[in-house]
Specification:
The chain has 971 residues and is mainly alpha-helical. Helix content is 62%, strand content 6%. It has a five-stranded parallel beta sheet with strand order 8-9-10-7-11, with helices on both faces. Strands 1-2-3 form a three-stranded antiparallel beta sheet.
Length: 971
Amino acid sequence: MNAEQGDSLRFAVLGPVRAWHGERELDLGSPQQRVVLAALLLRRGRPVTVAELIDAIWGAEQPSAALSVLRTYASRLRKVLEPGRDVGESPQVVVSAADGYLARVPERALDLGVFEQRVAEAKKLRGAGEVSAAAELLHAALDGWEGAPLAGLPGPLAEAERSRLTEVRLDALEARLDVDVQLGRHSEVIAELTALTGEYPLRELLCRLLMLALYRSGRQAEALAAYRKTRGTLVAELGIEPGAALQELHNRILAADAALDLSASGPAESQESRCERTDPIATPAARQGARPAQLPADLAAFTGREAELAQLKGLLPDDGERPATLLISAIGGMAGIGKSTLAVHWARRIAHRYPDGQLYINLRGLHPTGSAMPPAEAIRIFLDALGVPAQSLPASLDAQAALYRSLLAGRRMLILLDNARNTEQIRPLLPGSSGCLVIVTSRSQLTGLVANDGAHPLTLDPLTPAEAHDFLARRIGSARLAAEPRAADELITRCARLPLALAIVAARAVTYPGFTLDAIAQELRDNQGSLDSFTGDDLTTDIRAVFSSSYEALSAPAAKLFNLLGLHCGPDLSAPAAAALAGLSPRKTQRLLVELTGAHLLTARAPGRYVLHDLLRVYAAERVVAEETPRERDRALERLWSWYLHTTDAAYAHLSPGRRRVPLEPLPPGCHPLTFTAYEQALEWCEIERSNLVAAVYQAAESGRAGIAWRLAACLWGFFYLRRHLHDWLDVTRIALDAARAAGDRTGEGWSLGDVAAALTAMHRFDEAVDHLRQAMAHCREFGDSHGRCQAVANVGNTYLEAGSLEKAVEYTRRALALFRACGDVWGEGVVLANLGDAYRRLDRLDEATDCLEQALTVVRAVGNRCVEGFTLDALGTVKHRLHRSDDAIGHYRQALIAHRDVGNRWGEGYTLYHLGDVHLAAGDPAAAHTTWRLALTAFEEFDHPEAEEIRLRLRRLDERTQDPNPTARP
């Protein structure tokens, strides 16, 4: 996809999920496929894991092939959104990201992003007193809605997001109606407000706006009737009276309060002034006494976190009503993620809602400059701020906490507890009654505060790419970023979108304005694998020191596990793999993983799967070198690689049950590989762990462990053959071959030659494949490996078959058949019989083809080789089609499809569907042919298969044929 195409893409979720290239609307496929797109769009540039997407589509009722279907949806979306993308070119919109996908879509290209931007700008304008401009933006924002959000989409995600987005729209609608009333448009909004209060009878703000609009329109009686109706609903349905603000407005209307007239609060008046003079939400003055205002200054360059701010806003009652219970917001996340900055920013935005004051304290829970503050010290600081003389303080902590709660009773105060260590440090500082808001920031998860005190957790992720760009632009300047866009993107990537790292880099750019951004990026490149580039002039801006304060609070076993995680080079890690790395039991390891995630030094991406932030990975790599001996490091890697190898071998036994097993070395102590009870389970594990397995081959080879590298690559043969991850297959087998040769491992060299040839054959690089197989045959003759020689000869025949050199294919395959029969290898005999039959079929020697294929079918069924059974049935179907026996052909193809699906062979399924479509067309059923070819195309598109274009051509021709009013007249 070129830049022009990317800029022309637009998406809508505020209504039916839709997409356009310029003015042309795109066909986004089935509702379930649209759910995938919606989930990616709503995550706003952040990855969505496979598990999350599967849950979004199907919830608890997931089909057995959910993962395969999901990948099909992703493949189709890529084709629709980037129709001009060349084969082999990486997708630019729907992008693979570790265990999932993300959507690279600018905010301006998503109607929700445009809506949120307009609403946020309107809020700023309103706060600045520019009410008319705010009204225009709110009207424009709401005009962008096309109905119910995510209309027509099934699944739990769509249902939850519909509710959330509907609430977001209602908030914006209330704000728009509020400014309309403020601007004197009360007569214009009465009808709309009347309808809305009927639809949402429990939303008191709508009732207040309707009452005020009616009153200002000279309809006092109707305003009072609206109050009676809402009060009756609240009493009847909830058993409660209206809130204080609604009752106050009612009383003021009864008294004909002149301050409610528009003339008393003109349209140019600011929101704050209007609240004080005419808004029904105005709060009674705070009681006499100290009114602390301790919040730190807001960061002038604050940007981003709109989604998180919206979530925080949702905690508060509408328009400042007194909450029924104490509100606690617990903001968590790793060190440097921006917890305190967000907390202070939000606290500043809502401080006017807490007229009795704001308390702030840094509890130094995990602070690089000092020890944690005891609760007793914090209480005394707060009591002093509340005006309690030192001589009047009670002696015990419990008595001080009781006095603190008494002073806050009945008051509306905001308390910000920054950098808390744990729940025990926080609990004495909690007020005892409603009306107050407590904001807590911590690197710990504070599970006790959530479970026992009803805290609302909010865990911060790294900034989105767009937010990170805005972050740098606010500090460095947009012009400087625009002048070096590639360098700016590299800075964001190397900072891993961590706010503290970005701030350190931005400070360097501002301090040295003569430095180009590329020069600063070069400094980061030069220090790759180190945190030396992220040091500041004090401990709070030194990333290594900030990370250390979290690390040093860990127990010794958890710290050791964190160190060892720095050895792992894959994108994520499962709990059993972590147990192997640590050499501990799964139960002990799980406790340590909980401790690490609780400290936000590790992130649980999905149940049982964990990921390190990129900069924490660097820190862990530094710690493992500093804290663990070379011998300990080597042993840990040996356990991890062996765990991957033996678990892959257990999967290999299911995916290639009759193929020669790879000779393995004994397991090291403390390594307990997984076992599998079903084919599907083994295939799914390989798919989930693919990136880690590839990384393990590379790491083992680079570390001089050729035995691990070539054996792991060899055990992946069946998985790669079925799933056609061809570039990964070729890469790992070549790495394995190079490692084996460098180590003088002749056994590994022989295995790897055959594996490289298999990958090359699958990629249609036949000459290179034959060359490697001839080397393998010579190697086997030299070392007397008769089985390996049989396999190499058979593979030469198969390569010639795939290349279309049919006479050579027959020659080598017949030689292989004789060799397999001589050594009693029935599995190999079945495979080469099937290949020989297919060669005869292509040579139009149909009787010989039928004889070989029927023999092959008997043999492969006897040994349980379902993969080759599917291939054999497909070839038999083609023979029957050539003999004009359509019913027999269709029967064989349908049996072949069952076999392909049983073993997850999607490319084999695609070929059989391709051939089945040919039979349907020849039988005079173009509709069935069209349906079947569409299914084949879907399968081939998953692998960017070259046959996909041929099927597209056939479908176009078929469409032209069915649209021709006189098809028989065509030449």
